[in-house]
Write a structure and sequence with these properties.
Elements (H helix, E strand, L loop, with lengths): L1 H10 L1 E3 L24 E5 L27 H10 L2 H12 L9 H34 L2 E7 L2 E6 L8 E5 L7 E7 L5 E5 L1 H4 L4 E5 L18 E5 L11 E5 L2 E5 L4 E2 L4 E3 L3 E8 L5 H4 L10 H35 L19 H15 L7 H18 L14 E2 L11 E6 L6 E12 L2 E3 L5 H16 L9 H11 L33 H13 L4 E4 L6 E4 L3 H13 L13 E7 L5 E7 L1 H6 L9 H13 L3 E10 L1 H15 L6 H12 L4 E12 L3 H10 L3 E5 L4 H10 L17 H5 L5 E3 L4 H15 L2 E6 L5 H6 L2 E5 L6 H5 L2 E3 L4 H41 L10 H11 L1 H10 L5 H6 L15 H26 L13 H23 L5 H23 L2 H4 L5 H6 L3 H28 L3 H10 L2 H4 L1 H10 L8 H23 L2 H4 L5
Parallel strand pairs: 16-25, 16-27, 25-26, 27-28, 28-29
Antiparallel strand pairs: 1-21, 2-9, 3-4, 3-5, 5-14, 6-12, 6-14, 7-8, 7-13, 9-10, 10-11, 15-29, 17-18, 17-24, 19-20, 21-22, 22-23, 23-24
Helix pairs in contact: 2-4, 3-4, 4-9, 7-8, 7-24, 9-24, 9-26, 10-37, 11-37, 12-13, 16-17, 18-24, 24-26, 24-28, 24-29, 26-30, 28-29, 28-33, 29-30, 29-33
């Protein structure tokens, strides 16, 4: 029986709302261009005309790099000297060439050149990688006409304006083309624009009738024409131009334009002529220049540099004033002072001497500002990026694609994200729907459970087993009845092989069994609507004899597969209106039927009084489907009289072929007239197949406290359905539309925001609005060329390296293969990188203050003489060798908790957005620690060595001995401090801390072996003077303990009385409470979830509350005594 119905449907007459080609006499007149903006002239098939002005247009070469060969040096230097510290060291290096410098020029210039050079080399390497990805696109091949009807393959970058190109099926268009002809006789082609506007439906493009004969290579031998049109602009949906051919002029509109990066589908080939190339194309016009992005921490670091520079100037002023006073009042009495040939100090002019000394002091105290900080951070970030690239948990086995940190400048910014702005198509969805359930004539069909139902059942089962509940349990005789309602049917063990798009299981409708159902006639209508009411394009598979479908939305594809499985196969194409979709058919009896589907709110408003028989039951089923996370549509129909249809069809045909601005309004009005007095048939429920792990990823990000926005080019209904599928939306949420004023103020307080029908430019503008309006870190993620603008505009851009080109990846800062990897990128690597960089920078300032201020104390102690207590080589090696490696290991390997704990306790991520580890309180705390350490190091050593013998033979300490002992104490103190700071130790950290201390002694021994001409005052100082002296070793122990005791007391007090989240988790893991006390472990995990109204968990919780309420009601009916006799306390 089913086969017979299938055959009759193939032979039935279909009348659709599809567009008709207007008759030739109704075509508009040529456009009359007035004013600027319409100066483009294209000589078709004559690219040579565009090699010189005024018709010389840009090439088809595209570049997304930040630098080129010419601009690299000036732009890279500008980037480096945007950093305040580098500007200071440039000035200091210049001043080191003058006589007033306390150090040699080499000791100042060499570190600066090394730091700047290393940073620029890193920028050049990252820019090279971007260039190579650009070249992959530029070197794609397309077939180009070279003359005499001959076509050859050329790289995209060689295509010029005016070239005639031939694009084959499933290839991208290399530039914006005027569509001339196709492999179809009527000059149509099907185009997928997902890369441009995010829509997955195929667009039908039509060539001008006059160019239809240009249907093979030879036809272009003598082809000549001229196009006059609008100038390059970013608007994807408009085009105005004229086509002059064969002494006739024809108007052009968007239906004849094939845009770059859209794809040819279901068409063997097309011919087109290039109108806009390269950066003039509309997709590139929507892109923005590669921005120069700096992380929040790096910007704040500049403010810290200002603070330190202020401190530097302050103590330099104090030093210069002290020097001026000494020079003017005391130096005339110093008979032993020789004449100063350089005129640096002059007792007769103390003010001038003080000004000169100010320069000396600014250079001397420059170690307060760490020159190696930037290069150390650069090195750490590169190594962090290497770990991101090699994270096996972010490797996509299906495509063989790893994660890629395309720039390492923003690693720590990953841990400070407040708002994620995501594309939909190809990013969240995989464009697949599964037909799961349906309601026909008030009867529910479909036994399989959705992912939300399964998750809710699993969670309730864990709750029932794990601990007691506040809802009553039922007695044994009724337990099985309730259990059937709580635990859905498992999704495994299917009796037949599931087909893609069809997960329906119910024997009542399968294999023709629906004919035995009580309402078989209504079920027949339901299947007809399922098979006919859509906008899909059928394509016959010659091998199998069946049809495949290119649908406007994935749910339509699922409907067609389901209809085929039920015995109804479709082979015609229909058209949709905005909110609903209708088709008019004549069945085998001659009855004309209007078949309609749409959102339930729209369909129910159009039902007739006698068409609501199943409304109450259908609404109940729709609510249940919505709670289960399924995407729903309502089905209805209406019988039409022949006279009514004929009159309406005449009006409809006139409206279709009319020319004017009110054409769409006329069509909508006529559609509204016919789609009235409908009779409800039923509803469908399909499960939106998101990309693997998307709901779980969104759920985890929501628990981490992140706000998630979706920006899509899809229509509103599709966007809302995706929102429900992703668990960004759920039943009961209030939806707010069309808000024009105070958009941002309202949006930032919403649980989720979905922006639909947005162009690429608008995506970038929304991203900018959120970034600038909130002042918080934004992350944009997408996979297509339409996402490039927002990816570049956001603080962090993430590209998904999917199958739809690499434009998003080329413009991104980080690239991943699937959206689900964003969870680990942020919650694990982002959290780690933020804390590592924050702690690393704070430690850097601590150790440089601890070291640098000792120079100030010593100069004050020696009459502001400008004398350094340390040898030049000590100072040169302090940041480069002796303290750099442990801090680098901190930045690379430090983990407050493991990656598994990060994922189990997502609320830990909020430490980044709240900036708990790099706020001014913590920064000044570390500075204060450095100040304390400098005081202890200097004054304890002065007290110990100043006026007593330190060797057995009674010798006292000279400046070299005091300086070396003091420097040794600094090395020990700062290395012990970093050991106390670390939470996660490997052999590498142990080795590097020990190596830093050991390297100091190795250097001291080797340096002391050199001739006194080289080693000067430190000749054999360690072997002969320091190592035999017990007081030297005791002073090291005393100073190191005294320096680190306050930090140890502080951290002990904090962990005991005011612990942070990670402190609690560390204690639990250390005492293995996660294994010994699972109940406590689950409690702590539940507390570590940020309160949120979105995400899979929020939806599951809502489902659990619903199920518990049903259980309570059922239990109160089954056990009335529970109400009469309360449980004794």
């Amino acid at each position: 029986m089913a086969r017979g119905i299938r055959a009759r449907l193939k032979r039935s007459s279909l009348y659709t709302f599809g567009c008709l080609r207007p008759p030739r006499e109704s075509i508009d007149e040529p456009h009359q261009f007035q004013g600027p903006g319409f100066s483009r002239n294209v000589c078709c098939n004559q690219p040579g005309f565009h090699q010189k002005k005024p018709l010389k247009y840009c090439s088809n070469y595209i570049s997304t790099t930040k630098y080129n060969v010419i601009t690299f040096l000036p732009k890279a230097l500008f980037e480096q000297f945007r950093r305040v510290a580098n500007l200071y060291f440039l000035l200091a290096a210049a001043l080191s060439l003058t006589p007033v410098s306390p150090f040699s020029p080499v000791s100042m210039i060499a570190p600066l050149v090394f730091v700047i050079g290393l940073s620029m080399a890193k920028e050049a390497l990252e820019n090279w990688h971007r260039f190579m990805q650009d070249m992959k696109v530029n070197m794609r091949k397309v077939i180009v006409h070279i003359g005499d009807g001959v076509f050859v393959r050329r790289p995209w970058m060689k295509v010029q304006v005016g070239d005639v190109v031939k694009v084959e099926k499933d290839h991208f268009f290399p530039a914006d083309l005027l569509f001339l002809s196709s492999s179809y006789e009527d000059g149509i082609c099907y185009v997928e624009t997902m890369n441009l506007d995010g829509e997955t439906n195929l667009k039908v493009k039509r060539s001008l009738e006059v160019t239809l004969p240009l249907d093979d290579d030879a036809a272009f031998k003598d082809f000549r024409a001229t196009i006059t049109c609008e100038d390059p602009n970013p608007n994807l949906y408009t085009f105005v131009g004229n086509f002059e051919y064969d002494r006739q002029t024809y108007p052009l509109d968007p239906s004849q334009i094939l845009l770059r990066d859209s794809k040819l589908r279901n068409t063997a080939h097309v011919y087109g002529v290039v109108i806009f190339s390269g950066h003039d194309s509309k997709v590139m016009q929507n892109a923005t220049k590669s921005p120069s992005k700096r992380s929040t921490i790096e910007k704040q670091m500049d403010k810290i540099i200002y603070v330190l520079f202020t401190l530097l100037v302050l103590i330099s002023l104090i030093s210069s004033i002290g020097f001026a006073i000494k020079t003017g009042y005391q130096m005339p009495n110093w008979w032993y002072m020789p004449q100063d040939a350089k005129k640096i100090y002059n007792p007769t002019r103390p003010f001038l001497s003080g000004c000169i000394h100010l320069i000396t002091a600014l250079i001397l105290y420059g170690y307060l500002i760490p020159i190696s900080l930037y290069v150390s951070i650069e090195l750490v970030k590169v190594l962090q990026a290497l770990f991101i690239n090699r994270d096996i948990h972010m490797y996509d086995e299906e495509t063989g694609t790893p994660a890629q940190a395309r720039t390492s400048n923003l690693n720590e910014e990953l841990g400070m994200v407040d708002t994620i702005l995501s594309d939909k198509t190809g990013t969240l969805t995989c464009n697949q729907m599964d037909f799961l359930k349906c309601s026909i004539a008030g009867v529910p069909y479909g036994m399989r459970s959705s992912e939300v139902e399964l998750a809710a059942a699993s969670q309730m089962a864990m709750d029932l087993v794990g601990h007691d509940h506040n809802f009553p349990r039922t007695s044994a005789p009724h337990g099985s009845e309730i259990e059937l309602e709580v635990v859905p049917t498992p999704r495994t063990g299917s009796s037949h092989n599931r087909m893609k798009g069809f997960s329906f299981e119910d024997s009542r409708l399968m294999n023709g069994n629906w004919l035995r159902e009580p309402n078989a006639d209504i079920i027949l209508l339901f299947f007809r609507i399922l098979a006919l009411c859509h906008t899909a394009v059928p394509e016959l598979n010659e091998e199998t004899g069946s049809f495949t479908y290119e649908a406007e939305s994935p749910d339509e594809g699922a409907f067609l597969v389901a209809a085929r499985e039920f015995g109804f196969e479709y082979c015609k194409r229909t058209q949709s209106s905005i909110f609903r979709m209708s088709v008019i058919v004549k069945d085998e009896t001659g009855q004309i039927l209007l078949l309609c589907k749409g959102a339930d709110s729209i369909i129910f408003d159009r039902l007739s009084k006698n068409g609501r028989s199943f409304e109450e039951a259908t609404i109940k089923h729709l609510n249940e489907y919505g709670e289960a996370g399924l995407r729903t549509l309502a089905f209805a129909y209406r019988e039409l009289e022949v006279s009514e249809y004929s009159a309406w069809n005449d009006e409809f045909a006139k409206a279709k072929t009319s020319i004017g601005g009110n054409r769409d309004l006329m069509l909508e009005r006529l559609s509204d007239v016919i789609e009235r007095d409908l009779i409800l048939v039923g509803a469908t429920a399909v499960e939106d197949k998101l990309q693997q792990g998307v709901p779980q990823c969104i759920d985890k990000l929501a628990q981490a406290g992140l706000k998630i926005w979706v920006l899509t080019g899809d229509k509103m209904e599709t966007a809302i359905n995706i929102g429900f599928a992703c668990s960004l939306l759920r039943q009961g949420m209030k939806q707010i539309y069309d808000l024009k004023h105070q958009f941002l103020n309202l949006a930032v307080d919403c649980a989720s925001v979905i922006c639909c029908r947005v162009s690429p430019k608008q995506k970038a503008l929304v991203t900018r609005l959120v970034k600038e309006g909130t002042g918080k870190t934004t992350l944009a993620i997408g996979d297509g060329a339409n996402d490039v603008g927002m990816i570049q505009e956001a603080d962090i851009g993430v590209g998904i390296s999917g199958v739809e080109g690499m434009q998003a990846v080329m413009a991104s800062d980080f690239a991943i293969a699937q959206f689900r990897f964003l969870e680990r990128l942020l919650v694990v690597h982002g959290h780690w990188c933020y804390k590592r960089i924050a702690q690393m920078i704070c430690y850097f300032f601590y150790k440089n203050i601890a070291f640098g201020l000792t120079l100030f104390y010593f100069e004050a102690f020696t009459g502001f003489s400008g004398q350094s207590v340390y040898d030049d080589w000590y100072m040169l090696l302090f940041n480069v060798v002796l303290t750099s490696l442990p801090v680098i290991s901190l930045g690379v390997f430090e983990q407050d908790v493991s990656s598994e704990i990060c994922l189990q306790f997502p609320a830990l991520y909020q430490q980044g957005p709240r900036n708990l580890f790099f706020d001014w309180y913590r920064i000044f705390g570390w500075m204060g620690n450095g100040l304390y350490c400098s005081l202890i190091v200097f004054f304890l050593n002065i007290i110990i060595f100043y006026d007593q013998a330190f060797r057995v033979d009674g010798q006292t300490a000279d400046m070299a001995v005091v300086g070396t002992a003091m420097f040794t104490c600094v090395i020990y103190s700062v290395n012990c401090q970093i050991a106390l700071t670390m939470s996660h130790f490997t052999w590498i950290q142990h080795f590097l801390i020990g190596f830093s201390i050991g390297a100091w002694y190795v250097f001291l021994i080797l340096y002391g072996m050199f001739s006194p001409k080289i080693s000067k005052n430190v000749y054999q100082i360690f072997i002969e003077a320091l190592s035999p002296a017990p007081i030297y070793w005791l002073s090291i122990l005393l100073v190191a303990v005294a320096c680190n005791l306050p930090y140890l007391a502080h951290i002990s007090f904090q962990r005991s009385f005011n612990p942070m989240d990670h402190h609690v988790i560390q204690e639990i893991k250390y005492y293995k409470k996660d294994v010994k006390d699972r109940h406590m472990w689950r409690r702590e995990k539940s507390k570590a979830r940020q309160e949120t109204k979105i995400g899979f968990s929020a939806r599951v919780d809502a489902k659990i509350r619903h199920l518990k309420l049903k259980l309570q009601r059922k239990s109160s009916v089954l056990s009335p005594r529970a109400v009469l006799y309360p449980t004794p306390t």
